[in-house]
Specification:
mainly alpha; 8 helices; about 0% strand; elongated
Length: about 180
């Protein structure tokens, strides 16, 4: 999906695209982006079909997630995270909800954040630590204020999904095609 882009470029492009959308658009677009990366990963792994069937291989998003895991292209944690994202995308796609703060979607977004605790926790702890140090650096001395700093759900979503997309893209660059053994 991102061609020969570097991991940092994928992060930046994804973050920019998500930032240009409203909450609904960002969640839907994050599904499109990760779906496209999975599609590229799977096609890079599988043996290509002959000319008459070349573009016949198509899967829905849920199937791509499961196939990518079954082919060893993504981890169990990434499988869980992507299915959580798919669930959130489906809520936005099939419900009249426009905000990440709406009760109908907030639980689905929280499950995206909690799907891979180690990845999310290290992502957030570094970010919050940087924010706290920035506050201290500009002269904020009230530790209660400093301790309460946290990016908004939307900010976290954009950055986290940009990170996930960049990691998926990075994994896609190492995919090796299966060999045809013939019968």
């Amino acid at each position: 999906m991102f061609g020969g882009a570097e991991v940092g470029e994928v992060y930046e492009q994804t973050f920019k695209m998500l930032s240009e959308e409203n909450d609904r658009g960002a969640v839907l677009l994050s599904g499109v982006i990760t779906d496209g990366i999975l599609d590229a990963m799977i096609k890079a792994r599988l043996i290509g079909l002959p000319a008459p069937r070349k573009n016949a291989l198509r899967f829905q998003y849920a199937a791509k997630i499961d196939i990518a895991f079954s082919l060893g292209l993504i981890s169990l944690e990434m499988l869980t995270l992507l299915h959580s994202l798919r669930d959130a995308r489906n809520v936005f796609a099939h419900t009249v909800v426009n905000s990440l703060d709406d009760a109908a979607i907030s639980g689905a977004i929280k499950s995206v954040f909690s799907a891979v605790p180690n990845l999310y926790d290290s992502f957030m702890s570094g970010w919050i630590s940087d924010l706290q140090n920035t506050l201290r650096g500009v002269g904020v001395v009230d530790e209660t204020v400093i301790a309460s700093v946290s990016p908004s759900d939307r900010s976290r979503f954009n950055n986290y999904l940009a990170l996930v997309s960049a990691r998926l893209h990075e994994s896609s660059t190492n995919v090796q095609k299966l060999n045809f053994s013939g019968i």
